Amino acid sequence: MRDFATAMSDRPPTQRTASYEADPEWVGRVLLLYSGGLDTSVMLHWIQERYGAEVVTLTVDLGQPAEDWDVVVGKARDLGVVDAIVVDAREEFARDYVSPAIKANALYGGGYPLFTALGRPLIAKLAVEHARAKGCDTVAHGCTGKGNDQVRIEATVATLDPELKVIAPVREWRMGREEEITYARAHGIPVKGGTEAPPYSIDDNLWGRSSEGGAIEDLNAPTPDDVFRLVTLPTEAPDEPELVRVGFERGCPVTLDGAELGLVELLERAAELGMRHGVGIVDQVEDRIVGLKIRDVYEVPAAAIILPAHRELEKLVSTIHQNNFKRALEDKWAYLCYAGLWHEPLRLDLDAYMDSANQLVTGEVAMRLYKGSATPVARSSPHALYDRSLASFGESEGEFSQAASPGFIELFTLQSRMAHRIRARASDHGRKGEGE
Amino acid sequence: MRDFATAMSDRPPTQRTASYEADPEWVGRVLLLYSGGLDTSVMLHWIQERYGAEVVTLTVDLGQPAEDWDVVVGKARDLGVVDAIVVDAREEFARDYVSPAIKANALYGGGYPLFTALGRPLIAKLAVEHARAKGCDTVAHGCTGKGNDQVRIEATVATLDPELKVIAPVREWRMGREEEITYARAHGIPVKGGTEAPPYSIDDNLWGRSSEGGAIEDLNAPTPDDVFRLVTLPTEAPDEPELVRVGFERGCPVTLDGAELGLVELLERAAELGMRHGVGIVDQVEDRIVGLKIRDVYEVPAAAIILPAHRELEKLVSTIHQNNFKRALEDKWAYLCYAGLWHEPLRLDLDAYMDSANQLVTGEVAMRLYKGSATPVARSSPHALYDRSLASFGESEGEFSQAASPGFIELFTLQSRMAHRIRARASDHGRKGEGE
Amino acid sequence: MRDFATAMSDRPPTQRTASYEADPEWVGRVLLLYSGGLDTSVMLHWIQERYGAEVVTLTVDLGQPAEDWDVVVGKARDLGVVDAIVVDAREEFARDYVSPAIKANALYGGGYPLFTALGRPLIAKLAVEHARAKGCDTVAHGCTGKGNDQVRIEATVATLDPELKVIAPVREWRMGREEEITYARAHGIPVKGGTEAPPYSIDDNLWGRSSEGGAIEDLNAPTPDDVFRLVTLPTEAPDEPELVRVGFERGCPVTLDGAELGLVELLERAAELGMRHGVGIVDQVEDRIVGLKIRDVYEVPAAAIILPAHRELEKLVSTIHQNNFKRALEDKWAYLCYAGLWHEPLRLDLDAYMDSANQLVTGEVAMRLYKGSATPVARSSPHALYDRSLASFGESEGEFSQAASPGFIELFTLQSRMAHRIRARASDHGRKGEGE
Amino acid sequence: MRDFATAMSDRPPTQRTASYEADPEWVGRVLLLYSGGLDTSVMLHWIQERYGAEVVTLTVDLGQPAEDWDVVVGKARDLGVVDAIVVDAREEFARDYVSPAIKANALYGGGYPLFTALGRPLIAKLAVEHARAKGCDTVAHGCTGKGNDQVRIEATVATLDPELKVIAPVREWRMGREEEITYARAHGIPVKGGTEAPPYSIDDNLWGRSSEGGAIEDLNAPTPDDVFRLVTLPTEAPDEPELVRVGFERGCPVTLDGAELGLVELLERAAELGMRHGVGIVDQVEDRIVGLKIRDVYEVPAAAIILPAHRELEKLVSTIHQNNFKRALEDKWAYLCYAGLWHEPLRLDLDAYMDSANQLVTGEVAMRLYKGSATPVARSSPHALYDRSLASFGESEGEFSQAASPGFIELFTLQSRMAHRIRARASDHGRKGEGE
Questions:
Q1: Domains of chain C, first to last
Q2: pTM for this prediction
C-alpha cells in the first residue's frame, strides 16, 4: 500500500493560502495601484511580463503634497498600460474617513492618527470600482508581507468583491533595491536619482506623513533630523506663538479662526499652520497587526491641532460618565481601523455611538502653537456643562449645595471603607495564624 | 391624634448626614491639617473658640517647594496649639504613592497626573496616626464642600479609624475672604500681604502644582501667564533643546542620564529640568467627583518627562495584547485615586496587575526637552520585543515569514468579510422591500 | 469677638442637603405615588396632616399582576384626596424601557433584569407630567433611605422639572410597621390582614418581581419557598419539557411560536409560560448604589426566556468582534439603569450603539422550558454568519482554506512567542543574578 | 531580459508558511500526540511511511473518563512505535489550569468553560518535554485546519521550543473517514465498530465534554438527545432536588459539603453530582479563533456547579467596584485561553489581578441541583461585605445613615441632570431652527 501514501504526498500542495490570491493562469487584466515610484513601475512591467497580463493603473489623490499627476500618468502610459487613471478622492477621504476618526479621537499606540490606515480602505474601494469598470480580474498592490497595508488593502478588496483576485508582487518576488534598479534599467523604466535607496520608506496624505526604515530602525538613535520633509524643525519655527481657534459642529471641524471652510481646505490650512510651528512630530514604537514591532516617525501637523481641540471640547459638553467611558470605544475604533477591519460591522456600531456622543460637540477651542507644541488654552460651547457660579470657590455658592457633600461622601465611600476594615482584620488573623 | 404627627415633626432633625461628622458636643482635642496660610490659621482659632477644643497642628512636607516649616510651626505655636508637628513624608510619598502612579501611567482627564489626589490619602493617614498618638478625637481639614479633597481626606480618615470624627469648618462656616480677614485681624492672626485675595487657589507637591479659580474660571480666556510660578514660560525657555535619558527598573525611574538617584531626588531633578524648559503645562477642563466641572491649570514638569518616557518603554517590552489592554486599567486606577478611593480593594487588584505588567519595564528612554514640549526620541531595553532584522524592509527577512501573511489575512478578516456581504444583502433586500 | 463665632454657630444649619428637597413651609399640593398599600396610605394622611397639604395620588400600571385599580382609587378617595389618577403605562413601559433593555441584554449583578429600575424613571416621568397638570408643587414617594429607588425617582423628577420639590416621608419619619399600624388605626386608614408585617418587601411589573427583607436577609438560609407567588416551584412544574420559539426583529421580540404579538402581550405570554415551568428564579447578592449589599430573590419568567434567546440570536448574526466587545457596553447600560441615571446622556450613546448592533438581530430561537430552566436549543436567522459547509469537519471544505491556518497561527502568535522567550531569558538572568 | 523575470518566477515558492512547519526532509523522529482512536492511529502509520520517521506516542490523562490506557499503549506498540508514553497530568491540570480559570470565572461565549482550551497548552507542554527527552525533532498532532486546537498546540510548542517542528497530517492529507478506514484496513490498523463515522466529534477531560459536527451542524434542529453520554438527561434526573455546599479558600474550591478534598477529587465528585442531576448542558453558537462560527454542545457538570458558586461568593466579599470591573478582565482571560495564547504575558498580568481579587474569596455557597439546573441558594463568608443590620428595612437602621441619602443623590446625579436640561434646550433650539 505504499502507493496510497505516495499518492497522498504527490497531491499538489495548495499553493494559495488565501482565497483571494490570484492563480497565475487566471490573470488576464490587472488593476495596479500605482504611485509612479520605482517599486510600482517595476511591478507594472513585471506583471505584464510574468503574467502576460494587461495593466490598468490607478493613482489616488488623498492630498499627498507635491505630486504631479500628469507625470505619473505619462510614466504609466510610457510603460504600455491599457489605461492610466487618476482620482481626486480628497473630499470623500476627508468626509467619510477622517471625519469619523476625529469624532473617535482616533490614535493608535497613543500617537498615530491613522492617516495611512484610513486611506487604504478608500484606495482599495476605488480599486474595486475601477477594476470592475475596466474589466480587470485582478488587483495588484505594492505592499510587502511585513506590514499592515497588505491586510488593509486585501481585506477591503476581498470584502467588496470576492470575485476579484489579488496579487502582491513585492511579497512574492523578494527583489532588493539593487535588483529592482537592474530590472528597471534593463526594461527602460526611468530611475530617478542614483542607485542609492531613499533613506526612508514614506507614506502620506492630507492627514499626515510617516517615515520608516533606514536609520529609524535603530530605536536608540534620536530621531534623525533629515526625516522631516513636511514639518519645520521646532528649533527653526517662529519665535512667536500663534493662537488658532478651531470651530466644531457635532464633532466635525468647520471653522478656523471663525472662517467657515470645507473640510479638505480646513485640514490643509490646519496642516500649514502646524507645519510652520513644528507641530505634530511623533516618534513611537508601534505594534503592527502582523505581530512585529516597528518604530515610526510621524509628521501630523493637522491632526496635532484638530484632535486635542476636539477632545477638549468634548470634555466640556460631555458628562463624567461619557468622558470616562468613551476611551474604550475610541481605542477599539482605532484598533479596527489600524488592523484593516474597516468594513467590520463593529466599526459601524462604534460610529453610531460616536455620532451620538458628538451630537452636542459644537463650539470653539483655541490652540496655542509654538515651536513644536499645540495645546488647548481656551474653549467655549453653547452646550458647556459648566456653570461658573457652581464651580467658583467664591462666597456665593450658586445652586451647588455644599451641605450635600457629607452625605455624598458617606455613601460614595461606604463599601470601600467596610472592605478595608474587613481586609485589615483578615490580614491580622492571617498574621496571627502564621505566628502560632 | 394630632399629637402623633406633631411628635414626629418635632423629632430633632438628624444633624449629621455622615457617620464621621463630629458632634460639636463631643469635640475635645482636634488634629488640624495646617498649612500656615490664612484659611487654616483662622480655622485653628475658630476651632478653639467654637468648640472650646484643644488643637494639635500637623503639617506634611510632600515636597511643596519654598516652604519654611519653622515659620509655620512658630505661627501655630503663637496661636496657642497644644503641639505643632511637621512630618517630612517625601520618601513615603514618592515610594508608595507616586511610584504606583507611574507604573499605572496615571492621568485623569487626559492631563492631570494626580499629584494632589495622591498626596491626600497620605496626609490623611498621617493625620490618623498623629491624632491617635496625641489623643485627639477629631481631625479638621480646610477643604471646601465643592472639591475632591474633602472626599479624599474624609474617606481615608473614616477608613483607617472609624472612631475618629471629622470637621470641615470651611464647608460649614461659609466665611468669605473678607470675613476671614476681619476675623483674623480681630484675633491677632497675622495676615500676609494686603486684604486682596490671592489670584488663584494653589496646591502643590513634588509631583506637580495646580491653580484654580479667579481668572481661570473664564474658560474662554487663554491661560493667564501670571499663573505660572513653577515652570518657565515656554517663550522664555532656553533656545537649545536638551536631551535627558530616564532609566527605569521594573517600571520605576532609577537613573537620570545614567546617574543612579533615590526616587525623591530623581523626581526633584526631573522637575528642575522640566521647569527650565517650560515643560508640563496643562490647561484642561475636568470632572470633579462631586459632579462639577472645573478648569485647572497644572504645572507638572517632572510628570511630563517621566510618564511619556515610561509609556514609551512599556510599549517596547510589552506585547500588543498588553499594550492594548492596559489602558482600561490605567483609567480605572486614575479614577479611583482621583475619587478618593485609595483604600478601595480594587486599587490593590489593579496594583497587582500593574506590578506584573511592569516586571520587564527596564531600560532607558531619551526625552527631548524644548520650549514647552517633552517627547521621547530614543529608547532601549534588554527586554525589547523588537528585532531589527524582523522589522526591516530590507532584503533579508530574518525569521519573519512573509509567506505567512496571506494565510493570516485570510483568516483574520474572514468573518468581517462574510458579515459585510450579509449586511449588504440585507440592506439590498431592505431597499427592495421599501421600494415595493 | 466671641460674638462672631457665636453668630457663626447660631446660623441655622442647612436643613436641606439636596436642592430638590421640599422645604416644609412651601409644600402646597403634593402628587403622591400611591400603591394602595399600608405605607403609602399612612403617608397620604401624614402629608395632609404634617404639611397641611392637598394630595393628588398617582398609581401607575406597569403590568403588576392582580391589582384592582378601582379599589386603590376608592381607598385614596376615602382618604380625602383632591384627585386619584390611574395610568395604564404598560405599552410605553414595554416599548421605551423593556425593549432597549432587551437589546442591551441588560442584567445587573449577573441575574437582575432591572424591572424595577426600568419602571422607576417612567413612574417618575408620569409623576412630573401629572404634577404639572394638577398644579402640584411637590412629589412624594414611599422609598426608604437605604434603597436604589429613592435615587431613581428623585433623579428623574429633579431632571425633568427642577422646580418640583420632593418629599420622602419614610426616609424622614422612621416609623416602624407597628407605629404605622397604630397611626393607621388612629386615622381610620384600613389595614389589610393582621398587624403582622408581610414577610417580604415586594415590587413587581410585567418584566419581573422582587422579594427582599425578612427571612431573605439571612444570606446563609436557602431561598424560602414561601417567597414564590409568581413562579411555580420547579419541583411542581410539569413533567414534560415545552419548546417555545421566540422570534425577533432588529433585536426586539415580535413572535411567540410564530404568532405575531404586540410587545406587552408577548411579554405577558412569555411570563405565563415561564411561570408554569418554574423558570426565572434568581437568588443573588447585589450591590446597591448607596453602598450596601442586599440579597434579592427575583422571579423573572419572561426575562429568563427572552434574554437568553436574544443573546443566542445575537451571537449567530454578529461577528466575533461584535460579540466580544458588546458586553462592556451592556454592563455599563445595566449600571446606569440600576443607578437611576436613566437620563444620563451616556445611556443615549449606548442606545445608539445597541440599535446599530441589533440591526440584523432578526430570526428565531427555540427555548426549552423544563422544571426551572430555560435554555436555547435551536436558532435560525436570514443573516446568520454561519456556513455549514465552512464549519463542517467533513471531507469537502467549502470555501474555507485550511492551507491558510499555518500562516495565521504563525503571525497571530508571533509576538506572544517572542515575549515568552524574552521573559524566560530575563528570569534565567534573574535567577543567575540572585545566585551569585 | 526575459530571463530575469523567468528566473524570478522559477524561484521555488516558499512551501512553509509558518516557521514551525516541518520540512519533510528533516523529519527524523516524531512525538505523536496519540489518543488511540482511528485518526491518530492512521496518522501514526502514515508518518512512519511518508517521512520514514520513527514515532514516539504520548497520551495524556486529563481525566477523560473511561479510557483504558493499557489498551492505548498496546495499540501504539503494535503499530511499531519506538516508545509509547502515558502521563497522568490530572493534578497539574487541576492546579495550574482549571484553578486559575475558576478564579477568572472563565467562560467563553457565555457558556463554554474552556476545558479543551485549558488542556491543550498542558498537552503541548508535555509534548515538548517528552520530545526533548526522547530525542524527537518534530511534534505531530491530529487537529484539522479549521479549529482552535491547531492554534493552541502549535502556539505552545513553538513558544516553548522554537527548534521543534510541527506536522499536522489531518490538515495536510485531506483523507475523509472512508479513506482513513481503507488506509487502516490496508495497513492492519484495528478499526473499532463499523465503517460508519461516529455521529459527533468529541473531546473531554475532567472539566467538561464537547460534541461537534454531524446533526449538531444543523443549528435549527433542537439539541439531539443522543449527544449526551456524560450528563443524565434532565427529564431522567432524580425527582428530588439536592443541595451541595461548595467551600472555597482564596477563590479555589477546597470542600464539598464540608469534606476537604484534593482538587482533582473535588472536581470529579462535583462532576458526578452534576451528571446525576442533568446539570451543565450548554448548546451554543461560538466564534472560533480562525474566523468560523461553530455550534457546540457541552456537558460541563462540574463547571456548572463550581463557577456559579464561585461567582456568588465573590460578589459577597468584593466591593461594587471590584464586582463591576472584574468582568472585563475575565472576558479577556477567557479570550486569551480560547485563542491559544496561554503563554501571552497578558495572561500572567491578568492572573496577578485574579489572585489579588480572590484573596478574600473564602467561604461556602450552597448550590441546588435539580433536573438540569444548578443555582446558588445560600452563601456565607467570614469576609462578607454584608451587614444585616445595615441592609434591613426594619426599624433600627444600624450604622447606615439614611440622612446621607439626599446629599448623595444630589451630587451623584448632578451632572446627568444638568446635561439633560442642556440637551433638551439644544433640541428645542434645533426644532425651532428647523421650523423657521
A1: 4-197 (3.40.50.620), 202-318+360-380 (3.90.1260.10), 393-423 (no CATH)
A2: 0.95
